[in-house]
Specification:
Helices cover 0% and strands 61% of the residues. By secondary structure, the protein is mainly β. It has a single domain, classed as Jelly Rolls (Sandwich), CATH 2.60.120. Strand 6 and strand 7 form a beta hairpin.
């Protein structure tokens, strides 16, 4: 069950994995824990089952990838970096990135990524 309330600092949102919307993305299947559809959030957080993520970049948003389970490699501006359970990766705007392998990743985007800030790399 999702819970949203307001407090002095803004909106408080509590959502549980398995009870949030799930959708297909360019990276794999993602659970929308906190997402662009939620009002007044400063960032989004998705639990993503990565399976061959397509190369892409963002012009505005920074992403943080935290590997919850599994492993593989992240391709960052053409360089492969090994990741495994417990790895965290900071991806600034403009860095072309994708993934190989099978992993469960908590992806946090700051600020809240808009649909027009996702660009597929060629």
């Amino acid at each position: 069950m999702s819970k949203e309330t307001t407090a002095a600092g803004g909106v408080l949102l509590i959502r549980h994995e398995g009870e949030s919307p799930r959708e297909r993305s360019s990276c794999g299947w993602r659970d929308l824990l906190i997402s662009r559809g939620d009002r007044n959030v400063a960032a989004w957080a998705h639990a993503v089952d990565i399976d061959g993520a397509k190369l892409h970049y963002h012009k505005i948003a920074t992403e943080l990838y935290y590997v919850v389970d599994g492993g593989g490699t992240l391709l960052l501006d053409g360089v492969e970096h090994e990741v495994r359970k417990g790895s965290i990766v900071h991806i600034p705007p403009g860095v072309v990135h994708g993934a190989r392998g099978r992993m469960r990743v908590l992806v946090v985007g700051i600020p809240n990524i808009a649909d027009d800030d996702i660009f597929l790399a060629e």
